[in-house]
Write a structure and sequence with these properties.
disordered C terminus, mainly alpha, two-stranded antiparallel sheet, elongated, 7 helices, 154 residues, 5% strand, Arc Repressor Mutant, subunit A
Length: 154
């Protein structure tokens, strides 16, 4: 089963929080951690990574904290996950180097590479602003995208 890391979950939760509360200005790591029951130290490190990746900006001082570096509709779930966890690979053979002990005999390498590409494409289409929408709206949009992609492949 494909699964996001806890760090990626926390990062996406924080990005959604910041998008939903953008009108209030910056939010501190403590505020976000308390709102979602996330360990504050872990979240602080995640927010620092997101800032280093250019997805967040930090503000120092009494009303300091973090805010989105770009509009929420211009930040993808893929960017957030990659900033926190690095490149996404569903198997050890589908890596940057693309080599493993079974490379010469492997009969699933190419199909798994395609699966990995499709997952990346979906994550690139999901924006932080889309995560703010009601679940039914997001699901309906994804269903349309899948149908369009399927129709194009026929």
């Amino acid at each position: 089963m494909l699964k996001l890391t806890k760090k990626a979950d926390y990062g996406l939760m924080a990005m959604k929080h910041l998008a939903e509360h953008a009108d209030r200005g910056a939010s501190s790591a403590k505020e976000i951690a308390e709102a979602y029951g996330i360990p504050q130290e872990a979240l602080a490190k995640i927010l620092q990574r997101l800032a280093k990746a250019g997805l967040l900006k930090s503000q120092h001082g009494a009303s300091g904290g973090y805010f989105l570096a770009r509009d929420a509709h211009r930040i993808s779930a893929f960017e957030v996950i990659r900033a926190i966890d690095g490149p996404l690979f569903i198997t050890s053979c589908v890596t940057v180097r693309g080599e493993c002990d079974q490379s010469d005999r492997c009969n699933i390498r190419e199909p798994l590479r395609h699966v990995s590409q499709r997952i990346e494409e979906v994550l690139r289409r999901i924006t932080i602003s889309a995560m703010k929408e009601e679940p039914q709206e997001t699901e309906a949009k994804e269903e349309v995208l899948v149908k369009i992609h399927y129709a194009k492949s026929l």
